[in-house]
Amino acid sequence: MHKSFYDRAYLMDVTLVGVEKLLRAHKLVLNISSSYFQQIFIANPCKHSAIILNGITYNIMFELLKFMYRGVVNVKQSEIEAFVKIGERQQIKGFSTNSTSSAAVIVDKMEQEKERTFGFDVHFLDYDLVAFLYKTE
Q1: Number of C-beta neighbours around residue 15 at 10 A
Q2: Domain membership of residue 42 as a residue range
Q3: Which pLDDT score, from 0 to 100, does residue 3 have?
Q4: How far apart, in whole angstroms, are the C-alpha atoms of residue 121 and residue 72?
Q5: Where do the BTB domain residues begin and end (predicted)?
Q6: Which terminus of the chain is less hemmed in, N or C, by CB atoms within 10 Å?
Q7: Are 103 and 84 in contact (CB under 8 A)?
Q8: Does the global pTM surpass 0.70?
Q9: Is residue 84 a contact partner of residue 60, using CB atoms and an 8 Å limit?
Q10: What is the phi/psi pair of residue 120, to 5°?
Q11: 124 strand-pairing partners
Q12: Which of these, 35, 115, 21, lies nearest to 68 by C-alpha position?
């Protein structure tokens, strides 16, 4: 559902201001995907919001948005730790690590399971990227 909204860039009503560039998104998608953004929108009910994301690079924010819209994301191995940290800080639903799963474990699995797809759980790619996929039940 969210993927078609993202691809068409139709009715976007929030601008995310990162370190390098601006990203546009839909409040509805951010609201249902993240309690962090939900709190911002409740506290600031305006028609078009601009949210400044200090210290978040364009690549990481772009991939977090892809995760919220599509449920899949590609992150460079060198950015996995920052990606996980920011995703958890923004309280993105379906985005969490458990105590036995760390970036190092994910990368290790990626090396072992190249080009193998685990349905809705994880899809490993055959290059310096890893994709996460969450279930939308």
Answers
A1: 14
A2: 14-134
A3: 57
A4: 10
A5: 12-77
A6: C
A7: yes
A8: no
A9: no
A10: -90, 5
A11: 130
A12: 35
Supply the DSSP symbol for 10.
Answer: -
Helix (H) or strand (E) holding 49: strand 49-52
128 vs 1: CA distance, rounded Å: 28
Does 82 fall in a domain?
yes
The CA distance from 17 to 93, in Å, is 21
In a domain, 5, yes or no: no
Q: For the chain of 137 residues, list the mean pLDDT of each consecutive stretch of 10.
A: 62 82 89 90 83 86 88 81 86 62 44 41 35 36
Q: Would you say residue 3 lies in a domain? A: no
Q: Is 108 exposed, middle or buried (0-12, 13-18, 19+ CB in 10 A)?
A: exposed
Residue matched to tokens 């509805």: 28
What values do phi and psi take at 119, rounded to 5?
55, -120
3-state secondary structure of 108: helix
Alpha carbons 132 and 72: distance in angstroms, whole number = 5
The burial class, CB within 10 Å (0-12 / 13-18 / 19+), for 5 is middle
| Residue 5, helix vs strand vs coil | helix
- Find where tokens 């920052």 sit: 82
